[in-house]
């Protein structure tokens, strides 16, 4: 029996073109996510000239801007950042579900990593915790996922 080979990405071959698409709604939280993502990319050797940041009104608008970035800019990875906080109506489910589903579909359609750093939380306190306090910075984590996937895609050949 032949051994099973293992392939995974690393953080040593990550200099590539990244687009960060940011939903401005709840900007007091999202700004920290962006800072975490950019800091993580730069600390791992990504040239700041290879990082573009696109702002949209909110999480609902993220997929359209991500799609246009994938088509026009042709980055090696996209990092989607935003915050959707549950309220007293079903609006949360529609925005969060629609955004997440569309981002996943775009990743497959364009065969390009789309790291999902969109917080879907029950309260502003939870959002703040995930933007750099108790629960770490989910923007930085999304950037790490994007870099690992860029490295992995390079190993498979093709883009990145």
UniProtKB/TrEMBL annotation:
* EC number from the UniProt entry: 2.5.1.78
Q: Cross-referenced InterPro entries, in alphabetical order?
A: LS (IPR034964), LS/RS (IPR002180), LS/RS_sf (IPR036467)
Q: In which pathway does it act?
A: Cofactor biosynthesis; riboflavin biosynthesis; riboflavin from 2-hydroxy-3-oxobutyl phosphate and 5-amino-6-(D-ribitylamino)uracil: step 1/2
A Pfam family reported for this protein in Swiss-Prot or TrEMBL: DMRL_synthase
* Family statement: Belongs to the DMRL synthase family.
Q: Which residues bind (2S)-2-hydroxy-3-oxobutyl phosphate?
A: 88-89, 130
CDD domains per the record? Lumazine_synthase-I
UniProt xrefs under NCBIfam families: lumazine-synth (TIGR00114), PRK00061.1-4 (NF000812)
Question: Binding positions for 5-amino-6-(D-ribitylamino)uracil?
Answer: 25, 59-61, 83-85, 116
Q: Which UniProt keywords apply?
A: Riboflavin biosynthesis, Transferase
> PANTHER family from the xrefs?
6,7-DIMETHYL-8-RIBITYLLUMAZINE SYNTHASE (PTHR21058:SF0), 6,7-DIMETHYL-8-RIBITYLLUMAZINE SYNTHASE DMRL SYNTHASE LUMAZINE SYNTHASE (PTHR21058)
The entry's function note states: Catalyzes the formation of 6,7-dimethyl-8-ribityllumazine by condensation of 5-amino-6-(D-ribitylamino)uracil with 3,4-dihydroxy-2-butanone 4-phosphate. This is the penultimate step in the biosynthesis of riboflavin.
Complexes and interactors: Forms an icosahedral capsid composed of 60 subunits, arranged as a dodecamer of pentamers.
Catalyses which reaction(s): (2S)-2-hydroxy-3-oxobutyl phosphate + 5-amino-6-(D-ribitylamino)uracil = 6,7-dimethyl-8-(1-D-ribityl)lumazine + phosphate + 2 H2O + H(+)
User: Which regions span the lipid bilayer?
Assistant: none
Put simply, this protein is called 6,7-dimethyl-8-ribityllumazine synthase
* Catalytic site positions: 91 (proton donor)
């Amino acid at each position: 029996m032949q051994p099973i080979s293992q392939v995974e990405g690393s953080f040593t071959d990550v200099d590539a073109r990244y687009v960060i698409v940011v939903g401005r709604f709840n900007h007091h939280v999202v700004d920290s996510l962006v800072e975490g993502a950019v800091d993580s990319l730069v600390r791992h050797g990504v040239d700041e000239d290879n990082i573009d940041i696109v702002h949209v009104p909110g999480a609902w608008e993220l997929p359209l801007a991500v799609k246009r970035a994938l088509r026009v800019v042709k980055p090696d990875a996209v990092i989607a950042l935003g915050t959707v906080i549950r309220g007293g109506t079903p609006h949360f489910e529609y925005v969060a579900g629609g955004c997440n589903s569309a981002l996943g579909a775009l990743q497959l359609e364009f065969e390009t990593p789309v790291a999902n750093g969109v917080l879907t939380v029950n309260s502003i306190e939870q959002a703040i915790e995930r933007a750099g306090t108790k629960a770490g910075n989910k923007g930085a984590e999304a950037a790490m996922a994007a870099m690992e996937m860029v490295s992995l895609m390079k190993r498979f050949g093709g883009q990145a």
